[in-house]
Amino acid sequence: xxxxxxxxxxxxxxxxxxxxxxxxxxxxxxxxxxxxxxxxxxxxxxxxxxxxxxxxxxxxxxxxxxxxxxxxxxxxxxxxxxxxxxxxxxxxxxxxxxxxxxxxxxxxxxxxxxxxxxxxxxxxxxxxxxxxxxxxxxxxxxxxxxxxxxxxxxxxxxxxxxxxxxxxxxxxxxxxxxxxxxxxxxxxxxxxxxxxxxxxxxxxxxxxxxxxxxxxxxxxxxxxxxxxxxxxxxxxxxxxxxxxxxxxxxxxxxxxxxxxxxxxxxxxxxxxxxxxxxxxx
Length: 281
Ligand SMILES: [Fe+2]
Description:
The chain is an alpha+beta fold. The chain contains four helices and 16 strands. The chain has one domain (9-249): 2,3-Dihydroxybiphenyl 1,2-Dioxygenase, domain 1 (Roll), CATH 3.10.180. An eight-stranded mixed β-sheet has the order 2-3-4-1-13-16-15-14. Helix 1 (27-37) packs antiparallel against helix 2 (83-93). The longest helix has 11 residues, at 27-37. It binds fe (ii) ion. The site of fe (ii) ion has 6 residues, from strand 1 and strand 13.
């Protein structure tokens, strides 16, 4: 009984888009931007030195190893509890960011942010997306004209995802509250520079079989992980775009690892006992 749309609860093969990996040339600046500025939390347990940094964003992460800057070709959306607090933090980091590409601008329902090396980030406030008040709700990648029908076929037929096709855009469902979006553009797209994403899938062997038969596995990492980089049209075999996917099985040791998330509004002046942890309440 009841008037419920049960279909909105369905989840395709990808259970989680867990991290976006972007190399950064300066760990100090990266900490200032991702932790002090955006308000995320440095993972206290893994890669806490000066050559890599994992930054927790709700149930997602940014992985930021030290190397020449990588730039995602499109934009990465994030959700934060409060955009007014974000603006205060950005004013705080403006001076040390002066010699970088860091910039931000208020738009209708988000703040458009440029990271110190040029990555485009859209910061939305809590309430914009269902089931997420802190994290990475979607990433939107630019692709050449006429590629999205084939990309939709790849994610539907090879990866086993639910996809929604719109005009020149395909939204691939990731878990219960995320999307990987591909948007066609007539503008020039930069060459692929090796940044990657990590996803957890319930059907691990199915995509692997398809990709391995076509020599599309770029790394056999271990029992619980492989990588691929080319997104091909299953109808023609044509390579449509490149984005390295770190594909992990549900038994991967990192799956479901509890991520420490602080309350981004807490600082020396606003601290009260017990308010340091992020809470959806
Ligand atoms: Fe990774």
